[in-house]
Amino acid sequence: MKGSPEYIQKLQDELRKTSLGHDLIRTDKKEDKDFRQKDLVSHFILRLAYCRSEELRRWFMQQELDLFRFRFLREGPDSRDEFLRENSLNYEPISDDLKTELDGELRAAAGSKSGVVDTIEYFKVPFTEVFDLVSKRKVYLQDGYAYVSRDDMISIVITHYRSHLSHSLAVTTRALPHLEEDGRLLPMLCGLSKRYLGQDFNAKKSNVGEITADMIETLSKKSFPLCMQQLHQSLRQNHHLRHGGRQQYGLFLKGIGVSLEEAMRFWRTEFCKAMDVDKFDKQYSYNIRHNYGKEGKRTNYTPYSCMKIITTNPPGPGDFHGCPFKHMEVDMLAQKLRGQHISKDNVEKISKCVKTGHYQIACAQYFEATHNIRNPEDSASININHPNGYFLDSYKLLNGPKEGTKPVPNTPKVIKVKVEGTGTPSSQTNKQSDLNDMDDDDLIASMETDM
Ligand code: SF4
User: Fold this and answer.
1) Phi and psi for 3 in degrees, rounded to 5?
2) Could you tell me the residue range of the domain that residue 262 belongs to?
3) Count of CB atoms situated within 10 Å of the CB of 298
4) What lines the ligand 1 site, CB under 6 Å?
5) Considering the entire predicted model, what is its pTM?
6) What's the 364 CA to ligand 1 centre distance in angstroms?
7) Which family does the similarity line name (predicted)?
8) Of 41, 238, 300, 387, which cross-links 293 as Cys (Cβ 3.0–4.6 Å)?
């Protein structure tokens, strides 16, 4: 929950893990100068990377606004005033006479019976500057003006920052064609929004031990995220998956600890219910070995992150890959959830998140609902950014970590991106990021078998 003590603590911890300095906006300390510089540079790089589509822009703005709100609220009163002055946000408090006149209304809007209203300064601003307060009925409105308390000034500042950032992103988008003439920048910027920096889920590092083909059916019901359940069910029903589904599901299975031999057994058993073994061996087994680095460039491919699944290769008719929270109609999704006996309240909560574009939060709520998590502290620690992370968390919750296996620390790693001409980042230097984009062998295999 944004603004909750758990949220603030987590954000603070995450910020401290980065090299972007502490959590304040304004600081005159000399030692913070370097951090501040990095913070600025990273912000502008992200603007370039995230201005390319409406969806990316919306996501980026939301994160920036959350970060700004967090930092602004940690400033002292003098520092906040200074910030407003520096940014020409000069709002005059209303007079004491007017405050006395509106005392009852202000008190009602603040939900306060005590004397708090007497001690707080109020500002009269056009209601269009504080939509969020209006929607929450937290301000008194009169003649198109809202009376905002000093404590709620953040809403005004956020509105200004939102419109400034939105305009800047639009300007940056228009400048992109010029930037793209420089072949050194393009590959890095294009990949940045899809890059995943969390734990590396590949078969060698799976910490739940080996998973055999026979275990997959049971695990899919208990511990798979909805995207993988959907792929599994459609495979069981149709005895076939198209290329996008085979890639997404195959790499996920590899990441949870299914060996190449077991993967081959699993896919062969299912596909051969609808075709003969020869056809399977000729058309599909290459792809499976390829994902395990045994064919083509022999790259050890990593499972797809949520970001990649959500932002790339949307499913077409006959496809079952993608993220159901993003790619399924909300009504269909709600029906599916109800079919899994998820309570009405939870279905509504999840649908609300989906409608506002918070797909991973919707997935975290699905996790809570299906794992019966009620403790707010536990739910604050659920953070879904990878289907394999979802599986691991679920498996540990239901079974505890397997004995004799070392937990894999969930620490972000720095990725070195090697940019060569206009090519994509080298797979050797960027193992954890988008290795899964199709290469030539992949493409050939998919053309042969995508039927
Ligand atoms: Fe799968 Fe991630 Fe979507 Fe959850 S949010 S369904 S794990 S892609």
Assistant:
1) 90, -15
2) 214-399
3) 11
4) 225-227, 306, 309, 323-325, 359-360, 363, 384, 387, 390
5) 0.61
6) 9
7) Belongs to the eukaryotic-type primase large subunit family.
8) 300
Q: Are residues 108 and 249 in the same domain?
A: no
Cα 224 to middle of ligand 1, angstroms: 10
pLDDT of residue 244: 95
Percent of the chain with pLDDT over 90: 39
Segment (H or E) for 410? none
Q: State both tokens at 328.
A: 């399924």
Where the chain has pLDDT below 70, the residues are 19-32, 112-118, 180, 193-200, 202-207, 375-381, 401-451
Task: For residue 296, give every residue at least 6 positions away whose Cβ sits within 8 Å of its Cβ, in sequence order, or none.
Answer: 290, 439, 440, 441, 442
363 is in an annotated binding site: yes
Does residue 163 fall inside a structural domain? yes
33 and 109 co-located in one domain: no
Residue 272, marked binder: no
SS3 letters for 424-437?
CCCCCCCCCCCCCC
State how far the Cα of 390 lies from the Cα of 388, in Å rounded to an integer. 5
Q: What is the pLDDT of residue 422?
A: 29
- 245 and 363 housed in the same domain: yes
Distance, in Å, from the CA atom of 392 to the CA atom of 217, rounded to the nearest integer, reads 16
112 and 70 housed in the same domain: no
The answer to whether residue 432 is domain-embedded is no
Size (the chain), residues: 451
Cα 334 to Cα 307, 316, 349, 387, distances in angstroms: 22, 21, 10, 20
Q: What pLDDT does 340 receive?
A: 95
Q: Tell whether 247 and 104 lie within a shared domain.
A: no
Nearest residue (by CA) to ligand 1, atom 3, is 323
